[in-house]
Amino acid sequence: MGEAIGQSLVMAVGVALSPMPIIAVVLLLTTAGARRNGPAFVVGRLTGLAVIGVIVLAIAGPAVVSDQGQPATWVTWLKLVLGILLLLVAAQQFAGRPAADAEPTMPNWLQSIDRFGAARSLGTGAALTGLNPKNFLLAVSAGTAIAQTGIPGVQQAVAYGVFALIGTLSVGAPVVFYLAMGDKSATTLAAVKDWMGRHNAVIMSVVCLVIGVKLIGDFVSGLGV
Hints:
Elements: H1 2-16, H2 19-28, H3 34-60, H4 73-95, H5 118-130, H6 133-148, H7 153-181, H8 186-223
Helix pairs in contact: 1-6, 1-7, 2-5, 2-7, 2-8, 3-5, 3-6, 3-7, 4-6, 4-8, 6-7
């Protein structure tokens, strides 16, 4: 199981380094229902990752290992496809980055976040995970990498659970900080939000570039060339 966790660790860090969910959860912690909305968002993020994991492990688990005990050929090619897709996301994010002296444009739905309740916060957390191309590709990559190790299904689920928890740390930490510090956390959380908002595109492009190159490297290694 240690190998499975190790294989998915880079992808977990990539999921955690997602500026938009961090910005969203910080804004939720400024709402009237912060003590409900923040934890609900974290649960939503875990739910989004869990849904992807269940689907990927159910499909890939029985099929990623060949009769000789080696990774199936299609898994190697899947890494190439996922790597290329991540490079495309990296290029898109970098090309769309704001100018150095320009204010970053935030999604329109963030303007209504002060009216969110716990249910909508949970749904937003799940959507920003499952519907985000980078997070979706990384979760699929992690699930496939875990299944590829050939460990029993229960251990695969535990390994993916570790991946999901690490991927959720970045949104869980502000919530824990807020619950511990209360209103005293406002200045620090605002600074984090502003920094993430300004560097959102660059962070996304670097993360996608690094992991995309890694997956393509795994593809080359898998071919034995």
